Amino acid sequence: MQAETAEKYVALQDRLRKLGSAVVAFSAGVDSTLLLKVAVDTLGPEHVLAVTGRSPSIPSADLNTVAALAAEVGAPHEFLDTCEFEDENYLANPADRCYFCKSELYTRLTALAAERGFNAVLSGANADDLGDYRPGLKATGEQDVHTPLADCGLTKTELRQIAAELGLSVHDKPASPCLSSRVPYGERITPEKLRQIDAAETFLREQGFRECRVRHHDTLARIEVPAEQIARFADPQFRANVDARLRELGFQYVALDLRGFRSGSLNEVLPDQIRYG
After folding, report:
1. Strand partners, 222
2. What is the CATH number of domain 3-165?
3. What local confidence, expressed as pLDDT, does residue 136 receive?
């Protein structure tokens, strides 16, 4: 571990130690997993609870593995059903959709923490998130949710390095944002759309694409895979298999984005004043 990263890691431990106990918003990504691991090692498992919000927007692969991952780091774990799909503000899918989702999650987590006697709720937001378009971060401030990774200046690259040194199985896991992030802003969010997306991405991962997105443009599925893997679609049989499977899922048209995979590509259409404030 480089000296600067090691200093941040020690600062993270100190921050957590001062809190005494915490509920960790646990998504099974590398950020929240590392945060959970450090919390357990610093505070002891009896003073930590990992909680995963459960709704139609969470990829099934994450829901199926999150409990085992919490056990891997020695943390008690619970699911918490959230109700953002009862909020018209969320379903309308505005540019700040994430705010309504995170507000729902953190409201429930802070209530749970108070009920169980935990001193704080922790988010896995990192320092890189502060420079990106993340409307959900507004909810952390409103709900007094702590962001110790970001506060200590830990970047995604540093978090992956630390996770690898600690032997966490998710150290190289691709990011897995909520399924609603595949629906263009302004197009209504529905559980049916998200099930289509989830099944389509599951199929692509089964074909060997660890990192992929299926953007939902009504009857059209726009596939994003890493640019260096686009050549696989030159094979007629492979292309036909992908087309057939996505049509089975209800898409009428299947397209491949020639620019390749781009995290948050649907943000590209937002005006600069929204994306960059």
Report:
1. 215, 255
2. 3.40.50.620
3. 84
